[in-house]
Amino acid sequence: MVNITYDACKISSPAGSIIYTDDSGTQTIYQNGDIAWTLAGTALVFIMIPGLGYFYSGLLRRKNALSMIYMSVMTIAVVSFQWFFWGYSLAFSETGSAYIGNLKYFGMKGVAAAPSIGSARIPALVFAVYQLMFAAITPMLALGAVSERGRLGPCIAFVFIWSTLVYDPIACWTWNSNGWSFVLGGLDFAGGSPVHISSGSAALAISIYLGKRRGYGTERLAYKPHNTSYVILGTVLLWFGWFGFNGGSALSANLRAAMACVVTNLAASVGGLTWMLWDYRIERKWSAVGFCSGAIAGLVAITPGSGFVGAPAAVLFGVMAGTICNFATQLKFVFGYDDTLDIFASHAVGGVVGNVLTGLFAQASVAGFDGITLIPGGWLDHHYIQLGYQLADSVAALSYSFVMTTIILWLMHFIPFLRMRGSEDAEIVGLDEYDMGEFAYDYVGLEQEIGHDIETKMSEGMTTGGREPHHEHHHNVDENSLEKGLGSPA
């Protein structure tokens, strides 16, 4: 039985504080505000996951719109079970190795009121559910690479396996007090390596494994996002949730959490404006998609440094992320891989940018805003070796995730019902129809993809929901023309 009491007086702590007494009689006092803020952060990070689904969905074609939204909630469910089963134990057991934990907390056994490994200010149960949300969003970031040409069924198994073999070890070595990067002195406040670098490099591995989509290199894939409103909605939900992602990582309601929220918002704002300005130089258009892409890049970059850097540095984080990630989107053309949603450019590259800048601009004074944390700082504090620690952590996460993801994909490839690559028919029809039998909208522009007549009967004056305002006639689309890039893009 958990020995919990509440302090009714104000002598030793604020009234109503939770007092936990362990078997040896040692007491730990938890402030209700710290627990409440961390649980609020849990809810904020949760809402980021469907927000990511809407962000990805809006960037795709109509016929694949629902699949990404579905995958966001599927990922929450699978990782929630995996985290309960053994994920939390593999990442955060105190008796684990420098690379991965053990099964001390298998099935969440014993995870209750004892002080957490993350912070003695909150109980392990609160820490576990908060970290679950980080574990859940990470594979969803990578699964954007499956869009338009993967199979949805095998993704369920992939999420469970990938979380176990990739996310949990990287989270362990980054945040567990036994982890090699943690012991070395690497600084990663909220997930530059475990979340962003790991998912971005996994997305690259998935893109290479799946190969190019039909029509790659032709006008047929030069389509614009089918629903920019979804892109903006997804960005808003992500930005909103990132206050819990970074601010909540203080694991306490304190000044350090407030600073993390300030620099998070500032980096996102500057990143969005920077990316949009870079895009404006080409098309002379103020792109909402460009702004949203830059805001996400700024949020990614500030993640590892959000508890270590001040507001002036956050401006530089935003400028550098908005610039470098923008130009990194061209890497797929240089190296010939088909990263549908530029996940590698935004998350892997953005995560590395954030880790490096953290090594340069981390300050002991900012980390000390919580009254507990002591770090030597980065280059601003004349601690020059910190950059080496950040580079070592970045390279390790990038290479480990890429190699292990590739191994997982090829092992699944030789199990027919787990093969991730979809059929050509699925690409033509769209994953929504082929794998789900459902649509994001009542109308989907299949006539732009399938090589036979589709009759659209509509009342005069009605519109279809597509970019074209009226479709009141028969369409005849030649599949060979589409293959050559001469037909109408979806």
Walkthrough of the structure:
With 490 residues, this protein is mostly helical. The chain has 17 helices and 3 strands. Strands 1-2-3 form a 3-stranded antiparallel β-sheet. Helix 8 packs parallel to helix 10 and helix 9 crosses helix 12 (343-361). It starts with a strand and ends in a 7-residue tail after the last helix. Mean pLDDT is 88; it is low at 449-490.
Q: Which descriptors would you attach to this protein?
A:
3-stranded antiparallel β-sheet; 57% helix; disordered C terminus; 490 residues; mainly alpha; 3 strands
Q: Strand percentage, roughly?
A: under 5%
Give the % helix. 55-70%
How many H/I helices?
Answer: 17
Strand line-up across the major sheet: 1-2-3
Question: Which stretches are poorly predicted, pLDDT < 50 over at least 5 residues?
Answer: 449-490
Give the CA-based shape: globular
Mean pLDDT: 88
Q: Nearest-angstrom radius of gyration?
A: 24 Å
Number of beta strands: 3
Which structural class is indicated by helix and strand composition?
mainly alpha
- Helix and strand run: EEEHHHHHHHHHHHHHHHHH
Largest sheet: 3 strands, antiparallel
Euclidean distance between termini CA atoms: 60 Å
Brief write-up:
The chain is 57% helix and 3% strand.
Question: What's the topology here?
Answer:
Layout: E1 4-7, E2 17-21, E3 27-30, H1 32-59, H2 65-92, H3 124-143, H4 152-175, H5 180-184, H6 192-210, H7 228-246, H8 255-283, H9 288-302, H10 311-328, H11 331-335, H12 343-361, H13 364-367, H14 386-413, H15 424-429, H16 431-436, H17 479-483
Helix pairs in contact: 1-2, 1-3, 1-7, 2-3, 2-4, 3-4, 3-6, 4-6, 4-14, 6-12, 6-14, 7-8, 7-9, 8-9, 8-10, 9-10, 9-12, 10-12, 12-14
